[in-house]
Design a protein that fits this description.
The protein has 103 residues and is α+β, with helices and mostly antiparallel strands. It has one domain: 2-Layer Sandwich (Alpha-Beta Plaits). The chain contains 3 helices and 4 strands. Strands 2-3-1-4 form a 4-stranded antiparallel beta sheet. Helix 2 packs across helix 3. The longest helix is centred in the first third of the chain and has 16 residues. The two termini are 19 Å apart.
């Protein structure tokens, strides 16, 4: 499995971010080809102290090739272009292959 994580610093207008993200951006995300699962939260906390992030998004793909194909697809380009419509604080995008532990 390959995971894509987007970390969002605090936007200029948190209410607009929340509303636009849920009603407009996430429906675009659900159309990504090869997307296996996704989740998000506006309740990002840090231990200890203040978090530098307002929101987090996680997406799961079968592998890095599936994620790359999804991001390069017309739907992926539309998702990427839409970020400027709500994320005035920018976005940090990371991705990695998931390693599983036993426990």
């Amino acid at each position: 499995m390959h995971k894509l994580v987007v970390l969002y610093p605090k936007p200029a207008d948190p209410d607009h971010f929340r509303d636009y993200y849920v009603t407009t951006h996430l429906p675009l995300v659900t159309r990504l080809p090869g997307l296996l699962a996704w989740r998000y939260s506006f309740d990002v906390a840090a231990t200890p102290g203040q978090t530098p992030y307002f929101a987090v998004f996680e997406a799961e793909f079968a592998d890095a090739a599936a994620m790359t194909a999804a991001r390069a697809s017309p739907q992926g380009r539309q998702v990427a272009a839409d970020v400027a419509n709500y994320a005035t604080g920018g976005a940090v995008v990371i991705h990695y292959p998931v390693q599983y532990g036993i426990g």
